[in-house]
Design a protein that fits this description.
Number of domains: 6
Low-confidence stretches: 23-28
Distance between the termini: 112 Å
Helix content: 10-25%
CATH architecture of the largest domain: Sandwich
Radius of gyration: 45 Å
Largest sheet: 9 strands, antiparallel
Number of helices: 15
Number of strands: 44
Shape: elongated
CATH topology of the largest domain: Immunoglobulin-like
Mean pLDDT: 89
Length: 696
């Protein structure tokens, strides 16, 4: 019984679903039925309309026909294209036209009283075999609407005034106001005056007066301007003057733009030729956009390939040839050897080459312009998806070079440095990464400079400690900047050979893997690897410094040089934290002043009390005092510390004493030493002056 019930329910559900699908889905909702009750043409199908005729007393009939492609054309009073937006507005008005009131059935005499015999305007719409007719007459008695009737039916209705206004338009309002009607996706050629642009594949070229690559963005801008330009009004047939603009897609569309438009200032005359003759006016801004000068359309880039589109590069220069190829996102040197190239360097090089713009463009004999000789540089770039671009760059003359792109008939003059930036040396594209170091694996840092070797080791608590030339805390900030510089260190430029390089600083980093997998790969032992970087003198021009790693000499950025040319000792001079200072002795100019704390107050040794604010300023200037640089290790010589300008001794609660001596002054600051620490420091002048001003 249970199964029988289930089957019955399933059959009923299936029947209901079928009813909904085949019957109810074609039924109209209550709201739709109610809306149709007040529509003048219920069930009107705008897509079925193939012909429209609009008649007005004393005016020529306007006839519009829909072509097979769906486009509307005017056939009377003058043949031509129709404005799609205006046609859509009229059809929408017919489709949704509702009456506000139904006057009732009237005879022929009464129709005349309503302005419907003859009507003020009539629209006839052919939809398949049927013709639908709507007529509009006078304003209604309230002045809020107009009278309307369907065909010869006796009923008269009141509809909104807007409907009569749509029909009571000048025929020109229905004409296609586009400057040119064309298919942007099929354009093969453009002409602006005596400038001709032709599409070759995906690229555009100026083919007259000489062949030259066109600027893609400017061509697209021109196409958009031609597609969107609209007439402000139509005028009687006029004689064309100015530039002839033509667009070739599946056909040819022409318009001549130039001259003043009669009857309005600031408008330009445009006379359409084939396929649809018409004279019209356009705004001057639109006229300027569709008639750009030839120079604007030229692509003056030395290299027209985007870096992301390049797949292969061949460089021929000074008798050498270098090949580069991209495999996915990775560039490699394919000739003369398959070494890895630096992806960023290749991309940046392509980008830089494309950033050069022509200083001048001119036809001419390439050989006479320095092209074709032994000094000629040639770059060939194959692109993703096909296509090859070549650039030949001639010898440098007076700071300029002439270049030729492919088989273009014109030459480009560029700055000589454009050629200087091209090299067939594999070193030029080699990775600029200097050291392959993970900062958390660095265990020991060794710096040799000026006859002194410093060794700093990382402790178990990740704190750095100086072991040589003396046992001392290392400066955490200095080491942090040094490691950050090393890990991200990239050469600004690689130099061939090691001539004229003499190191002033040698940096050694001993690294040891911290993960168990790396130790397993090394036979269970965490292998120690030493990385060496030598830093030399400043590079010519002061833009950085010379350096050498694994035999390659390079130029490093100035900021990196400053972070690498350092001494590792802590720069903290006075670090008393929250410890209590109970005595202070200041010696300067051969005189000493002793200050001591008595209970909560401070006094001079002779007895007078010293204001608490003054002592706070003095101790604040000393507390946490740090040097800006480490000058040297060992006994000090020649920094004025034998005859100091100022000495400060602090006595702490518990008996510990800190003595700080300030010596001579240099351009960078004041030399200083801390008693018991064999290091000479340089302290910022302002810190010393602040301390001196605070002293009683």
């Amino acid at each position: 019984m249970r199964y029988t019930t289930t089957i019955v329910l399933l059959v009923a559900a299936a029947g209901l679903a079928a009813y909904v699908y085949f019957v109810e889905r074609h039924s109209r909702t209550t709201a739709q039925v109610e809306a149709d009750r007040v529509k003048l043409l219920p069930g009107f199908d705008r897509d079925a309309v193939s012909r429209i005729v609009i008649s007005r007393p004393g005016q020529p009939e306007v006839v519009l026909e829909r072509e097979k492609k769906g486009e509307w054309k005017l056939t009377a009073p003058k043949a031509g294209g129709a404005d799609a937006a205006v046609l859509s507005e009229i059809l929408s008005a017919v489709e949704f036209l509702e009456y506000r009131a139904r006057v009732g059935d009237v005879g022929a005499r009464s129709r005349a009283e309503y302005g419907l015999q003859p009507p003020k305007a009539t629209i006839r719409l052919r939809a398949g075999p049927k013709e639908l007719v709507l007529s509009v007459g006078n304003d209604d008695a309230a002045g809020q609407g107009v009278y309307a009737a369907r065909g010869d039916e006796p009923a008269v209705y009141v509809v909104e005034k807007r409907f009569r206004e749509l029909l009571d338009r000048d025929p020109d309002a229905l004409r296609d106001r586009r400057l040119l009607a064309f298919d942007p996706g099929k354009v093969k050629q453009l002409r602006v005056g005596d400038t001709v642009l032709t599409r070759e594949g995906s690229a555009w070229f100026l083919t007259t007066p000489q062949k030259m690559r066109a600027a893609e963005a400017k061509v697209q801008e021109l196409l958009r301007a031609l597609e969107t330009a609209r007439a402000t009004r139509f005028v009687p047939d006029a004689t064309p003057v100015g530039k002839v603009v033509s667009v070739t897609d599946d056909g040819v569309h022409t318009v001549t733009v130039g001259g003043d438009c009669p009857g309005a200032a600031g408008e330009v005359l445009a006379v359409r030729g084939v396929p649809e003759a018409a004279s019209l006016c356009v705004a001057k801004a639109d006229a300027d956009r569709v008639t750009p000068p030839r120079d604007v359309l030229r692509d003056t880039r030395l290299l027209t390939v985007r870096p992301e589109d390049a797949r292969k590069v061949v460089i021929a220069a000074l008798g050498r040839e270098l090949g580069l190829a991209r495999d996915g996102a990775v560039w490699k040197v394919t000739a003369p050897a398959g070494a890895a190239a630096d992806d960023e360097v290749v991309r940046k090089w392509l980008e830089d080459l494309g950033s050069y713009r022509a200083l001048a463009v001119a036809p001419g004999d390439p050989a006479a312009r320095g092209l074709g000789g032994k000094d000629t540089i040639k770059v060939t770039v194959e692109q993703e998806g096909g296509g090859t671009t070549t650039v030949a760059i001639g010898a440098s003359r007076d700071g300029r070079r002439w270049a030729r792109r492919g088989d273009e008939a014109v030459l480009l003059q560029v700055h000589a440095e454009a050629g200087d930036a091209i090299s067939a040396d594999p070193l030029f594209f080699r990775s600029r990464k200097v050291l392959q170091v993970a900062r958390w694996e660095v265990r020991t840092i060794t710096v040799a400079a000026g006859g002194t070797t410093e060794v700093a080791e990382r402790g178990p608590q990740e704190q750095w400690r100086l072991e040589k030339p003396l046992a001392l805390d290392a400066d955490a900030g200095v080491i942090d900047r040094l490691l950050a510089a090393v890990v991200d260190l990239r050469a600004e430029k690689l130099l061939a050979g090691a001539a004229a390089f003499a190191p002033t600083h040698t940096l050694r980093l001993a690294t040891q893997p911290t993960d168990a997998d790396a130790a397993q790969r090394d036979g269970g032992v965490r292998k120690v690897t030493t990385h060496v970087l030598e830093i030399g003198a400043d590079a010519p021009g002061g833009g950085g410094c010379l350096a050498r790693s694994t035999g390659t000499v390079m130029v490093l950025a100035k900021a990196a040089c400053e972070d690498l040319r350092v001494r590792l000792a802590t720069r903290k001079l006075v670090d008393i934290g929250e410890q209590s200072v109970v005595g202070l002795t200041l010696a300067r100019g051969g005189k000493s002043e002793v200050l001591e704390k008595r209970g909560p107050t401070w006094h001079k040794a002779a007895g007078p009390r010293v204001p608490t604010e003054q002592i706070d300023d003095l101790l604040g200037a000393l507390r946490g005092l740090s040097a800006r640089a480490v000058v040297q290790y060992g006994p000090d010589v020649g920094h004025g510390l034998a005859k100091p300008r100022l000495e400060a001794s602090l006595r702490l609660d518990g008996g510990k004493e800190i003595k700080l001596t300030f010596g001579a002054e240099s351009e960078r600051g004041v030399f200083a030493r801390l008693q018991g620490r064999d290091v000479t420091y340089l302290v910022a002048r302002r810190d010393v002056e602040t301390f001196e001003k605070a002293a009683p």
